[in-house]
Every structure is written in C-alpha cells, then in structure tokens.
Amino acid sequence: MKDKSIKMLKTIGLGFTEPLIRLFSGEEPAKNGKLFFKQALLPLLSIFLFIAIWYAGATALYNSEAEVRIEKARAEQGEEAALAMRKCIESGDVSCQPNTLPSPAQVYTAFKALWQDHLSISEKKADFKARVADTNSEREAQGLAPITYTGRPSFLDQIGTSLKTVAAGFLLAVFIAVPIGIVIGLSASLRTSFNWLIQIFKPVSPVVWLLLVFMIVKTVITDPSIDKSFIISSISVGLCAMWATLINTSMGVSTVDKDYINVAKVLKLSIGQNIFKIVLPASLPLIFTGLRITVSVAWMVLIAIELLAQSPGLGSFVWEEFQNGANDSNAKIIVAMFVIGIIGFLLDRIMLSVQNMMSFNKGIA
Amino acid sequence: MAILELNNVSKSFGAGSSRIDVLTDINLSVREGEFLAIVGFSGSGKTTLINLINGLIFPDAGEVLLKGEPIAGPGPDRGVIFQNYSLLPWLSVYSNVKLAVDQVFPKMSSSEKEAHVLSYIEMVNLTPAKDKKPSELSGGMRQRVSVARALAMNPEILLMDEPLSALDALTRGSLQEEIIKIWSRDRKTAILITNDVDEGILMADRIIPMTPGPKATLGPEFKVPFERPRDVTNINKDAQYKRLRNDILEYLIEVGATRRQVSDQKYILPDLKPTMPGRVIFGRKKKKDKVKYF
C-alpha cells in the first residue's frame, strides 16, 4: 500500500514527499527526517528567502520613487508642496502612491481582489442565467440562439480561455507534427528534402507566425460571427510549438534500434505492421519527449500571442492591466506572472508523468 | 541431401581504402537434422556468416542455397536467436512470442495461437513471468524468451548467434542443457555460432572452426562422436573429449598465430625525437577532489 502510493506520487512528480510518508510510517526516522529536510524544507526556506529579497527590493524601489516625487514637487512647486507630497505618500493615499514594483503584500491583496472579482462576476452570471432562463427556453423553442452573458470576463475565465487556446494549439500541433514526423522519419530522402524547411521555420518568432496566420485567416474566414481571434491565436500557438514534436518524432522513427528492425525483417512484417507494431512503439518515448517540449513552448508563446492578437486570455489580461495603469495594476500583473508560471509548471509535470509512463526501457542497461 | 549450402561465399563491407573483406571462400554444407557449431575468435565474422544465412545481408560472390534455392531475404523458416536477445521492450513475454506466432501461423484460431504460445513459454520455464516486460527479466530469462520466440515459429533451421555469450557460466550451463533438450525433441537443423569450444562439443554433432578475420574462412571439420544425451560431468572426464578439445584449440591457436605472421601491412613510424618535458603541460588535468560545502 505504502510503496504503491509512493510509486504513484513519483509518477505524478511528487516524489519529494516520499521521505515524509516513510517518516510517518516510522521507517528509519533519522535518515528519512534528514531526507525530508533536504527535499522539502530546504526548498521552502528558499521560497522565504526569495520573498524576503523581493520585499527588500520592492521597498527600496518604493522609497527611491517616493524620493523622486518629493524632489520633483520641491523643484517645481517649492518646499510646501514637497512636504504635502511626503505627507500624502506616508498617509497611503491612492492618488499619490509611487508606481513601481509591488511588494509581496500588495500582490497578495491584488490576488484577493481578483478572487473577489471572480466571485462577484460569477454571481452576476448565475443571476443573469436565472433571469433569462425563461426567455432562453422560449427562444430555443423558436429555434433562436440563446442569450448569453456578455459582461467582462473574470481572471479565472481568462485562465480558462488561455488553457482552451493552448489545448487547441497543442492538438493542432500533434495532428500536424506527429504524422508528418513519422512520414519524414521513415524516408531518408524526404528527410533531406524537407530539412531546410524545418531548420528555417523552427526559429521564427511567435509574433511573425501570428502575423502570417492573421494574413491567411482574415482572407479565408469572412463570416463575422466566427471568433477569429481565438482561431488565429490557437493556430499560431500550434505552428510555433509543433517543431519540437516534428523533429523528435522524425528522429525517433528514423533511429529505431536495428535489432527491432531485424526482428521485423525475420518475421517478414508488412509495412503497416512494421510501422504500428515496431516503429511507432519504439519511438513513442521520443515522441512524448517532443510533446512535452511542445506543451511548454505552446504555453510560453501563448501569452505573447494573446497579447498581440487581442484574443481574451492571460496575455490580454496582462496587457490590459499594463495599459490600465490603475493603482493595483502592477500587482495584478505580478499575480498573472505567478499564475502563468504555476500553470506552466503543472502542464510540464503532467506531460512528464505521461512521458514516464511511456518510456519502457528504464530498466534495460 | 543438404538443406543448406554455401558455395564460395565472400562478403566484404565498405569500399576503397576502407574496404574490409570479412569472409572469403566459405564452403559449407549442412545436412537436415544436424546440429552444427561454428567456433571462432571474436571479430572473425561469425555474425556476418549467420546474417548471410538468415538473409539480412547478401553475399558479394558465391551463393547461399536453402534446399537448392538461393536465399532471397529473411523469413520465418529460419528462426534466429540473436546475440543481444532483440526482444521488443514494450511487449510482455507473451506478446513477444505471440507477435511471431501471429505472423507465421495467420490461419490458426486465436485459442490455438494462445495454446501454442503458452506451450513454448512453458518449454523455456517462463510461465510465471509471461506477463512481465523484458526490462523486468534477467539476462538468462530474456534469452529464454528469445529461444521460445524462435522455436514457436517452428523454423526449419534454427540459427543461434552466440546466444549464451552474454550470460554467466552457471546460467549458460543450464540454458545449454535446455536448448539441447528442446532441440532433441524434433531434431530440426540447428546452427550454433559460438566462441566457446566446450559449448560446441557439448551441443553439436560437428564443429567447424573459423579462421580469424579479415578474410576469414572455414577450417576443417571436427566430428563430435559422443552419444546423446550428453552429460557434462561424464564428458569432462572422457579422454576423447580432451583430445578433441585440444585438437580444435590447437588448430585455432595455430591459425591465429600464422594469420598474425602473414600480415603484409607495413607500419611507417614517424621520425620523432623525444624532448625534455618543460614546465607547462597542456592537456593534462589535475585530479580534483570533489569538495562538499554542506
């Protein structure tokens, strides 16, 4: 039971809890206590250290910005204005706060504000839904589209949109890159003939991909009722991120162990059997390594693309907050930064555990 | 009538100055139902020879005839036990054998197939491990799976390419006995490639030594007169065994020595004068002790 749960935790990437579990079951307390300290408490300490440095830096920046404001008031309006400015800043009045790197406390407040905002918006949404329920059922009977809530999305809704975009882009990347990778991997001449294309387009910046996709999509899709920004951003994400999978798949397929190929030859497997019974399973570990890279690239690129494509999501949230310039905008941007980082980390962990499940030759020396 | 014949077979790899003549003038005739061992130094081209027979490569000159027909490619009529097992690591023991059975007996019903696969797994004593992956097995067990897979194809010729050379002496001994036991049931033609003379004497009817490469060829044959079933301890005491073993070894050592003498390659050594080492020495790293800071 215990070993099973440890194994499961390891596959989902929570291996650092192993000593704690062993510690609780009374197994070698001295050794496991030390291990737990090393693997779990030390990272926790480093988080505190990080927050302390952040706090110190934010305070220093705040003070220097405040000084600049006071000096400016003194130079432009005289001593009296400078004193008034100092008083205003010390009182914590919103109107004259220095606008700089927010402190950890401000970020936490912004996080709570965003959460409250989400709660109130979802309440409004539920309220709206209840109010239009009757109308909507009538409209449905008449064959009309239901009335939907069109208010401002909350922060959580935007996270959801971002995840949807990245999932669509990832699926697109998989459906393009894996089959092409297999075909290219199987034939050396195809590989050499398309290598230039891969090598040239792989390093192209996400912004350029976005513009390219925009050029095509705006001509192809003319129906104004279709959400073009979502299509554009998900296609761009897919095109940016697919290269790792494409290259890894073609490499995996082209470097299948010669022994397996010999087995296939001795058994006289047909081409289809050869691909599905030998080549594909043998290259699955490399394909999944590629998919893992694709997911992390997709998530990284997504923010920049949403920011430019004006498609709703975390990227546009960050950009709107930056343009907004409200008192807590900077803090909200930092919240978004952490959320982006944590989600990216979780996505990577999910892909890592899938990848671990797929690798069969761990035990083969 | 010989089931397998090799007439003046030569094989070389590479071209130009990097060309290596691996095998020259190989003449071999294998009778149906015999157990033949080919013994030779490592690197003498034994695997090349077995690959010529199983059809993975083709000779540059001469012909390889199976029942009088030249070999067109690999096929399940020649079951191969590879030196490095060549099991598919994503399939279980059962599925590894099943893949071969599916391919060779497509007309069998699924229950017949299952019985067939299980009987061969049972034959190599792996029934308790039939659902395990190759990575969970020991080297000896992996090789037994490979044996079961090759035998389950019901091949006309069983080709064994140093099947036991990666195993420890004890496992090796027990697997030798097992392979012989399985072979003696239906006495199919078997060709064993090995670098161990004792293994050859214990298992084969006939031993043919191979001269060391490059340009390796086959030497004179040695008949193994012992009755089957052979017992290792009894054979070890036999005076005839010692003579046979010494003869083969002497032959191998002799060809090894002459081969070295006839080498016509000239080595031109560079005309260098040693200089006294100075203070600065490039390319040599001081060995650093790893320092632990915490």
Automatic annotation (TrEMBL), chain A:
It is found in: Cell membrane. It is a multi-pass membrane protein. Residues 159-351 form the ABC transmembrane type-1 domain. Keywords: Cell membrane, Membrane, Transmembrane, Transmembrane helix, Transport. Gene3D superfamilies: MetI-like (1.10.3720.10). InterPro entries: MetI-like, MetI-like_sf. The keyword Transmembrane helix applies. The keyword Membrane applies. It comes from the Bacteria. CDD domains: TM_PBP2. The chain crosses the membrane at residues 40-62, 166-190, 196-217, 229-251, 271-291, 298-319, 331-352. Belongs to the binding-protein-dependent transport system permease family. This is ABC transporter permease.
Automatic annotation (TrEMBL), chain B:
It comes from the Bacteria. PROSITE patterns: ABC_TRANSPORTER_1, ABC_TRANSPORTER_2. Residues 4-237 form the ABC transporter domain. It is a peripheral membrane protein. It is found in: Cell membrane. The keyword Transport applies. GO terms for molecular function: ATP binding. Pfam families: ABC_tran. Keywords: ATP-binding, Cell membrane, Membrane, Nucleotide-binding, Transport. InterPro entries: AAA+_ATPase, ABC_transporter-like_ATP-bd, ABC_transporter-like_CS, ABC_transporter_ATP-bind, NO3_transporter_ATP-bd-like, P-loop_NTPase. NCBIfam families: ntrCD. This is ABC transporter ATP-binding protein. It comes from Fulvivirga kasyanovii.
